[in-house]
Each structure stands twice: as C-alpha cells, then as structure tokens.
Amino acid sequence: MRWDDLRRSTNIEDRRGSGGIPGGAGGLGIGTVLILGLVGWALGIDPRILIGGAEILTGNSESYTRPAERTSTGNTPSDQAGQFVAAVLGDTEDRWQEIFQAAGRQYKAPRLVMFSGVTNSACGMAQSAMGPFYCPNDRRVYLDTAFFRDLENRFGGCEGKACQFAQAYVIAHEIGHHVQNLLGVLPEVQRTQQQLSGPEGNRLQVKVELQADCFAGVWANRAQARWNLFEPGDVEAALQTASAIGDDRLQKRTQGRIVPDAFTHGSSAQRVHWFTSGLKNGSTSGCNTFDTETVGRGL
Question: Is residue 295 part of a domain?
Fold first, then answer.
C-alpha cells in the first residue's frame, strides 16, 4: 500500500502507555473486563453489552467522564504505527469530505483514540479483546494497534506488507460507522432495535456492519483514484481479512459451530460481497444493505 503521500490527520488521541483504566471504587478489574470480552466474542454477543451489565451490577454505571489518563491530542504520533493510522485517517477525512460536499453536506471528522490494553469511552470500557470499534456517543474510533498483529498472527487475514491495506480496511470500516452516524442511520437503527427481539436485533446489526464494510470499499475506491494506492496483493489481502473476521469463521474457530442468529457482523461471504461492492462502485448509493428505503440510504 502506497501511503507515504497521504495527509496525516491530527484528530488523534494517543493514550498508549497511559496505564490502562483509572482506579476507583466499584470499577471492574482488568481481568474481569478481558474475560467478559472473550466470552462475548466466543458467544457472538457484543462484549460491550456484557461489560455494561457487569458495571451496573457493581454499581459502576455512572455517566461518562473523561478518563484520568495521559493523553496526547492534536499531534500526529511519530512512531510507525501512529504515522500509518494518521495517514489512513487523514485520507478518510479528505475523501468523505469530497463525497459530502458533492451532496451539499458537511463532513464532520471523528477523533481516533489509540490505546494499549484498556481505556475508557462514552460507550463503556474499551479493551483489546473487543477489537476496534466506533462509539457514537462521543464520535470516536477506539483502536488498539495490537489488533493489527492479530489480523496476521491470530486470524490469518493477511501476510507481510499486504497487511497494511487490510489494516486500512479495518480503520475505514470504523469510519464507515461514523458516516452512518452523520447520515442518521445509527440513531434510527438503535431506536428500531429497542422494539426487536435478540435475533431480530442481531440481524439488523449485521446490516449496519455490512454497510460499514461497503463504505470502507467506497473510501478505498476514491483513495485509489486519487493516489494509485494499491500494490500487488493489497486488495486480495483486504478481501482475505474481510473473510477471516466473518461471524461464521469466528464462531467455528472459537466454539466449533455456527449460530446464524448470533451473528453481529455478517458471514465471511457477506463481508467480502459488500466491501467489494463499495470498492467497485465508489458510491454510497450502492451500499443500502437494509430492506427498507428509510434506513441506510447513501448520499
């Protein structure tokens, strides 16, 4: 992946090495958080739901406050991983700004929090076992770059230098959730999910995740047109990653069986299909993964 010329974003909070979760009475221990994260991942349940429930049981459900940890903001990290994340984030800002402007709208960029192990968010505790995620409550993407190593070593989603574009796909997917938030898709889905049963709510969540995959493909299409971004093997690595982190593959690996009703991100085939759709078309209008016309429309 040719990323040297990409503009570096300064919308980054670097919390790496900050010492993890702030102390305090009633808080969950790091071990508890990690165990809940692994259990949720194995069962196909969003770990944030389990962690949030545990926080309520322990009396730690107070409103969100900014974590008392060392945070570097407004500056681009100087290390290799930080530079790469800043470059990808910066280009998502530029490409989505172009797309929004063409539709007569303004793109408001999110912030990205880089952390190590565990940190706090407006959606509860963020920890490595959960993988990268977007929190609509504070409009931040949370990323422990150790997940990039997992893509290659644990999930087998890519190999060597080709992993860079696969990593960019992961970042662009989370930015896709921010785009959904700006378009009003996430609030509408959340309201609808409150009226649905568990399996029905999961099916709706899958459509949200698949649309974010498609939006990641839209960014990749626009970035390629602007920068000739791809090198041999890049697209194949991204597709391999999309397949490797499908719900069916993860469930088969962790519990030995596939439970479609517990899917939250979509099957391997679905994730590959929708990322490819965005990559080929380069337009959000081809990313309506929903059955109705009132949810998920593009720009």
Answer: no
Q: What is the pLDDT of residues 108-135, one digit of tens each?
A: 999 999 999 999 999 999 988 788 899 9
CA distances from 30 to 24, 134, 164 (A): 12, 21, 30
Long-range contacts of 190-197 (CB under 8 A, 24+ apart): 192/295
Domain residue limits at 19:
12-286
Return the DSSP state at 140: E
Domain count, the chain: 1
pTM of the model: 0.78
- Which residue has tokens 């899917």? 263
Q: Is residue 280 part of a domain?
A: yes
177 contact partners, CB below 8 Å, separation of at least 6: 134, 136, 141, 186, 208, 212
Closest CA to 141 of 183, 100, 173, 189: 173
Establish if 150 belongs to a structural domain: yes
CB hemisphere CA count around 297 (13 angstroms): 6
Q: What's the sign of the alpha-carbon dihedral 36, 113, 240, 95?
A: positive
Tokens read off for 296:
């998920």
| pLDDT tens-place string over residues 221-239 | 999 999 999 999 999 888 8
Largest CA distance in the chain: 52
pLDDT more than 90, % of the chain = 49
> Alpha-carbon distance 227 to 208, whole Å?
28
Residue 7 lies in a domain: no
Least confident of 133-147, 173-187, 234-248: 234-248
Query: To which H or E segment does residue 214 belong?
Result: helix 198-227
From the CB of residue 62, how many other CB atoms can be counted at a distance below 10 Å? 9
Residue with tokens 């759709």: 277
Report the C-alpha gap between 5 and 32 in whole angstroms: 42
Q: How far apart are CA 17 and CA 71, in angstroms?
A: 9
